[in-house]
Write a structure and sequence with these properties.
Elements lengths: L12 E5 L1 H11 L7 H15 L9 E5 L2 E4 L8 E4 L4 H7 L10 E6 L5 E6 L19 E3 L2 H12 L1
Helix pairs in contact: 1-2
């Protein structure tokens, strides 16, 4: 990553596709290991990956793509949608969603003509706990297009 500090000024975006499989792949590589320590190490490595962007140049945007997970709500409440992780350490102690100021979810909308429209949810729509700074996006639903998102971020922070 040292080339991102000065030599490669042309790199403005990094896409990790996908973060959930970074964890899953480590979990499967270590599946035969006994003991609880491996889960702690997997959680720590996943947390480190999420936090790496804080040490990069300010002009680099890091897009962490991952899967979502829907869990039943407690005591009959609505289901809870969250970032899918491996193990309770990240869920209970870190809550990965809390590390981001922008958290978009993919929504699939069936249009009147039967076509499927893939879009991002920019703020909580009652189904997805998305979030973004106020007025970063004009609409609750935007195109599922990272170039559009990157441009919106650049315009917002100007």
């Amino acid at each position: 990553m040292s080339h991102l500090y000065g030599k490669r000024k042309d790199i403005k975006n990094i896409v990790v596709d996908d973060w959930q499989y970074v964890m899953s792949n480590e979990y499967m590589r270590r599946a035969s290991e006994k003991g609880f320590e491996k889960f702690t190490e997997i959680g720590k490595n996943a947390w480190s990956t999420l936090n790496k962007s804080k040490s990069l140049r300010e002009d680099i945007k890091v897009f962490m793509l991952t899967h979502s997970d829907t869990q039943p709500g407690e005591f009959g409440s609505s289901p809870v949608v969250k970032i899918k992780t491996i193990g309770k350490l990240l869920d209970d102690k870190i809550n990965p969603a809390g590390l981001f100021s922008i958290l978009l979810y993919t929504d699939v909308n069936k249009k009147e003509n039967g076509q499927m429209e893939y879009r991002f949810v920019t703020n909580n729509d009652g189904n997805y706990p998305a979030k973004s700074p106020m007025d970063m996006f004009k609409d609750l639903y935007i195109p599922n297009d990272l170039a559009f998102v990157a441009k919106s971020i650049d315009e917002y922070y100007g």
